[in-house]
């Protein structure tokens, strides 16, 4: 995405790779000087410009006010949502509430908690495959392979389709262009897959998530179109993988850069509770999602007109020094529960518990098994900042385990 900015003496473009490694100094400047920052888009598709909100108070207020900050025109910047599967991310009440009620009914705490032994066994098996080498790519050999396997377990999907699911995920929300030719091809392939799956499980009372969603739709007497039903599957497939892949990888990088905090976790299992929340705050795997204003909005001395797209920078809110003392410091003892990693308000991520569980178990297995590791910083390849802090490759080195 190529953008221009009126002359203000300050530049920030979340779609420019130059800002991906360390956006936080720019967030800090925006919070102090440009809390409602407008960015022009050259060769735009839907909106000629968008705004960014960076202060925690403004992000909180916008996320809580769906009537003013609507999701109905999409949560991705300058993307035509008619090209992607329908899902509750891109809906307002009352339609949003119907979808959310169905998913919350089936994605229960007990279903999530039951996944822990499976996740741990899988994470340890992945580590066993490379621990004697003394090096691995944290993305391709570890982080990508945990959520893609867990989604198979959760949805009752064939494990042999895992690589297909991962490829679809990377081509759609894991890429630089969410409606590129590759992305649209992946969406079309996914539609055929999910339509066939839904047809096969339409009257199946099995315990997998897809069957249970179909049962809930029937019992709720929800008037969902076929595209909305398979859109559920697409949402679970994409959202459950992308955020968690990036959180695990960024978590491994953060713990490598902060060995003292890593050692605290290694020495005290009870710190994983606060440590996980702090890592989510510090890393912020979802850096920002968009809304569209339904009325003029005043932020200090700036008016955002009705009908403009606004990017809520969760990553900036999570590093707001009004909320957190020394926000650029990773402190696994910090009480960081009031963070915006999974959003706020009616669109708070229903899959947060699954993502937290997968990330905690994966990172703990790495800490317990590998112990100390370093990241080859010069070889880390980032692919996104928003919506997620995407990473394509992250080589790590450690002392090889003796066979």
General description of the model:
- With 403 residues, this protein is α+β, with helices and mostly antiparallel strands.
- It has a single domain (3-397), classed as Cytochrome P450 (Cytochrome p450), CATH 1.10.630.
- 44% of the residues lie in helices and 11% in strands.
- The chain contains 14 helices and 13 strands.
- The protein has helices at residues 24-33, 56-64, 95-106, 109-113, 116-130, 147-155, 162-171, 181-201, 209-220, 226-257, 259-267, 272-283, 314-317, 352-369; strands at residues 3-4, 36-41, 49-53, 69-70, 135-137, 289-293, 297-299, 302-304, 309-312, 374-375, 381-382, 391-393, 395-397.
- A six-stranded mixed sheet has the order 1-2-3-9-6-4, covered by helices on one side.
- A hairpin with a 2-residue loop joins strand 7 and strand 8.
- Helix 5 (116-130) packs parallel to helix 14.
- The longest helix is centred in the middle third of the chain and has 32 residues, at 226-257.
- It is globular and about 65 Å long.
- Mean pLDDT is 92; it is low at 1-6.
């Amino acid at each position: 995405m190529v953008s221009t900015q009126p002359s203000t003496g300050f530049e920030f473009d979340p779609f420019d790779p130059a800002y991906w490694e360390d956006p936080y100094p720019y967030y800090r400047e925006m919070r102090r000087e440009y809390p409602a920052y407008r960015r022009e888009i050259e060769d735009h598709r839907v909106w000629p410009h968008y705004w960014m909100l960076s202060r925690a108070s403004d992000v909180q207020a916008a996320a809580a006010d769906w009537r003013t900050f609507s999701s109905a025109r999409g949560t991705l910047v300058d993307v035509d949502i008619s090209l992607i599967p329908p899902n509750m991310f891109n809906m307002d009440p009352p339609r949003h509430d119907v979808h959310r009620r169905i998913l919350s009914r089936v994605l229960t705490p007990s279903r999530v908690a039951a996944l822990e032994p499976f996740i741990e066994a899988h994470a340890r098996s992945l580590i066993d495959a490379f621990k004697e080498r003394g090096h691995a790519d944290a993305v391709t050999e570890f982080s990508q392979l945990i959520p893609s396997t867990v989604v198979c377990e959760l949805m009752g999907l064939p494990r042999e389709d895992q690589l297909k699911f991962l490829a679809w995920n990377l081509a759609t929300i894991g890429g630089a262009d969410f409606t590129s030719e590759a992305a649209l091809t992946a969406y079309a392939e996914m539609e055929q897959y999910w339509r066939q799956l839904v047809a096969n499980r339409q009257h199946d009372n099995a315990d997998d998530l897809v069957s249970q969603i179909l049962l809930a739709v029937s019992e709720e007497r929800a008037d969902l179109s076929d595209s909305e039903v398979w859109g559920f599957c697409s949402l679970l497939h994409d959202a459950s993988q992308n955020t968690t892949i990036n959180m695990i990888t960024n978590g491994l990088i953060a713990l490598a850069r902060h060995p003292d905090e890593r050692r605290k976790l290694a020495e005290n299992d009870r710190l994983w509770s606060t440590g996980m929340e702090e890592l989510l705050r510090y890393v912020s795997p979802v850096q920002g999602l968009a809304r569209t204003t339904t009325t003029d909005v005043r932020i200090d001395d700036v008016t955002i007109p009705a009908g403009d797209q606004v990017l809520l920078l969760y990553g900036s809110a999570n590093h707001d020094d009004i909320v957190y003392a020394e926000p650029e410091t990773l402190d696994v003892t910090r009480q960081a529960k009031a963070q915006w990693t999974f959003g706020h308000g009616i669109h708070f991520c229903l899959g947060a518990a699954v993502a937290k569980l997968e990330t905690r178990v994966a990172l703990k297995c790495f800490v317990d098994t590998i112990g100390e590791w370093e990241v080859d910083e010069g070889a880390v390849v980032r692919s996104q900042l928003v919506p997620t802090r995407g990473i394509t490759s992250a080589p790590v080195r450690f002392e090889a385990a003796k066979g």
